[in-house]
Design goal:
This protein is of the alpha/beta class and about 240 residues long. It has a single domain, classed as Uracil-DNA glycosylase-like domain (Uracil-DNA Glycosylase, subunit E, 3-Layer(aba) Sandwich), CATH 3.40.470. It is about 40% helix and about 15% strand. A hairpin with a 2-residue loop joins strand 5 (about 150-155) and strand 6 (about 160-165). Helix 1 (about 5-20) runs antiparallel to helix 5 (about 105-120). The longest helix has 18 residues, at about 105-120. The chain is globular, with a radius of gyration of 16 Å. Residues about 200-240 have low confidence and may be disordered. It binds uracil.
Length: about 240
C-alpha cells in the first residue's frame, strides 16, 4: 500500500472510530450527528469553516446551506468541485442556535482538526473566517486584516500553506465582501500550483501574516486567542473583522 493510500485508510478509520463517536464536549448531547468532513481524503486543498449549522447537522455534511452553495460556486469558478477538495470545520458538532463556538469547545474539538490535517497533508489550507484562521495560524489577527495573505507553516510535521479567506456567510451578508472573496479565491490555483511554494521562503511580516509557525499540536496561544463567546449572531461570527 502506498503511503498516500495508507494515510487515507488511517483518516477513514480516525473519522469512524474517533470523530463520529466523539463525546469530548457537551455539544455531543444535542447533535443529530457529527459532521466529520467531506470530499477527497487525499486532497491537496482543504477548506476549514467554523461549525455545522442546522442543515449540516441534519445531513452530516459540512457547508450544505447557503454558504455551501456559494462555496460550490466559488470552487466552480476556479475549475474545481467539492469532490476535488476536503471540507471540514473547527467544530464537528452544531452549537445550539448556531451560536459562536466557545473556547472550551474549540479546545476539546481541535485535536480532531489537527489530526485531519496531519493525515491529509494538504498543500493548501483555506481557512474560512475568524475561528479557523485564528486556530490554525495560532495568532489573534482578525480575518479582515489577514485575508488573502498566505502563510507558510508546519502542521503535524508537514509544510503547508495557510490561506485565510472571508467566510462565505460574510460575503452573503455584505456584497462588497463577495468581490474580495472572489478575488482572494482566484489566487488559489496559483498557490496550489506552487507559485508560492508550501514551506518555502517566508515573506517579511508586512507581506505575509507573520513569521513561520510550527503547529504540531493545538497551540495554547491559539485557544487563548479565540475571542470570548459573548456575542450573538455577531460580525465576528461572519468573519467581518
Ligand atoms: N456550514 C459549515 O459546515 N460550516 C460553516 O462554518 C458554515 C456553514
Amino acid at each position: 500500500m502506498s503511503d498516500r493510500a495508507a494515510r487515507v485508510a488511517e483518516l477513514e478509520a480516525y473519522h469512524r472510530d474517533e470523530v463520529a463517536v466523539c463525546t469530548r464536549c457537551p455539544l455531543s448531547e444535542g447533535r443529530t450527528q457529527v459532521v466529520v468532513g467531506s470530499g477527497d481524503l487525499a486532497a491537496d486543498l482543504m477548506f476549514v469553516g467554523e461549525a455545522p449549522g442546522y442543515h449540516e447537522d441534519v445531513q452530516g455534511v459540512p457547508f450544505v446551506g447557503a454558504s455551501g452553495k456559494l462555496l460550490g460556486t466559488l470552487l466552480e469558478g476556479i475549475g474545481l468541485t467539492r469532490d476535488d477538495v476536503f471540507v471540514a470545520n473547527v467544530l464537528k458538532c452544531r452549537p445550539p442556535g448556531n451560536r459562536d463556538p466557545q473556547p472550551a469547545e474549540i479546545r476539546e474539538c481541535e485535536p480532531h482538526l489537527f489530526r485531519q490535517v496531519a493525515l491529509l497533508r494538504p498543500r493548501l489550507i483555506c481557512t474560512l473566517g475568524n475561528f479557523a484562521t485564528k486556530l490554525l495560524s495560532g495568532r489573534p489577527d482578525g480575518i479582515s486584516r489577514v485575508h488573502g495573505h498566505e502563510l507558510p507553516l508546519e502542521i503535524g510535521g508537514h509544510a503547508t500553506l495557510l490561506y485565510p479567506l472571508y467566510h462565505p456567510a460574510a460575503a452573503l451578508y455584505t456584497r462588497s465582501m463577495l468581490a474580495t472573496l472572489e478575488a482572494d479565491f482566484a489566487r488559489i490555483p496559483e498557490l496550489l500550483a506552487g507559485a508560492v511554494p508550501a514551506g518555502g521562503p517566508v515573506a517579511p511580516r508586512e507581506e505575509s501574516l507573520r513569521p513561520p509557525a510550527t503547529l504540531s499540536a493545538p497551540a495554547p496561544a491559539a485557544a487563548g486567542a479565540v475571542p470570548p463567546p459573548a456575542r450573538a449572531a455577531s460580525d465576528e461570527q461572519l468573519g467581518l473583522f
